[in-house]
Amino acid sequence: MRRFKVLKSLIRDSLDTITHGSRKYHLWMAALTFIMLVGMYCYSIQLDQGLSVTGMTDKVSWGLYISNFTFLVGVAAAAVMLVMPTYVLKDIDFKQAVLIGEGVAVAALIMCLAFVIADMGGPSVLWHMIPGIGVFNFPNSMLTWDVLVLNGYLFLNITIPFYILFRHYQGKKSKKSVYVPGAFISVFWAVAIHLVTAFLYQGLQARPFWNNALLGPRFLASAFAAGPALIILVLAIIRSYTTFKIEDKTIKKIAMVVTVAAQINLIMLISELFKEFYAPTHHSESAYYLFFGLDGKNALLPWIWTAISLNVLATVILTFHKLRNNFKVLFFACFILFIAIWIEKGFGLIVPGFIPGPYGKIAEYTPTGIEIGVTLGIWALGAFVFTILAKTAIGIEIGKLRYKK
């Protein structure tokens, strides 16, 4: 009964916290709300007219939605780079950032699920994904495994921080015997969610662009570069606009993680380019279309070369110690690296897998305004959720929110 009273008080105090703030905070939340409303309007059109209002066809059946889904799975998995040093290796320098990282993971997973719903056409078909009701096809279907690992990881990233914050809200220390086992599980689960997502593509023999053994490891490398890069940018904003103390050494340690992951990701990119173009076969046509164009079709050319240029520039900047320790330069490098990997793991991965088609026909894909509107709305939803979670968590961690007996 007492825990219920504490929970009720926590909810009440959290609502009070997220509905009050500075003028900049209210403008930020208003902007996100407006973008979400635009996204809902675009989605209502899609519900009414079907997926025909998108740029997807029977030739290219995965587009902007699945591109963002794939990228965001990596962002969610990257929270493990803070969870493992903090909870498992007991590195106190990561302690202030770990709850923020898990908040990013929760927001990213919610966006992942939203993009899946959007790509399926509407929530009315979700029953297909429910065990015992739909055609779940467990354990043969990789999509089934993806559903399980994503929802399981979401559960872990909600329950562990909630327990810690619930204890701190009462002015008590959290018990390691309660949350450390879950933290250990989440470390392996984070790797699993991205590997399983990679296996979804890697196991399709008819799509040679995806069917290579390096896809899974490269998914992890790019995830551990883009995810912590985003966390660094979020931490920079939080310590600029709140009283939440984040040490310079915390950001520097996360920057080292980003640097190593970005270097490995670049090496793997070079390896893939060598494999595709040193001794090309007809299976290399998707890569030729992506990097050089094919039969006069080159819609993705500016996207991929922009991504590679930004990727190389960011990795070079991060490699040099003096540049990486200059926070203005570091934030710029993290921003362009995040954009580069978003392009590379989005349009640069999903769309070329369908081009050319089984009979050699090239049908290019361009997202429509409806798709872009829905996508922006889902990203705004993720930012909205994270802002609410972060504002509450920061209030508890700095002692502003406490249970009044």
TrEMBL record:
It holds the Pfam family NrfD. The keyword Nuclease does not apply. This is Polysulfide reductase. Keywords: Cell membrane, Membrane, Transmembrane, Transmembrane helix. It comes from the Bacteria. NCBIfam families: DsrP. The keyword Transmembrane applies. It comes from Seonamhaeicola maritimus. It is found in: Cell membrane. It is a multi-pass membrane protein. The chain crosses the membrane at residues 27-46, 66-85, 97-118, 147-166, 178-201, 221-242, 254-274, 300-320, 329-355, 375-396. GO terms for cellular component: plasma membrane. InterPro entries: DsrP-like, NrfD-like. Belongs to the NrfD family. Its main location: membrane.
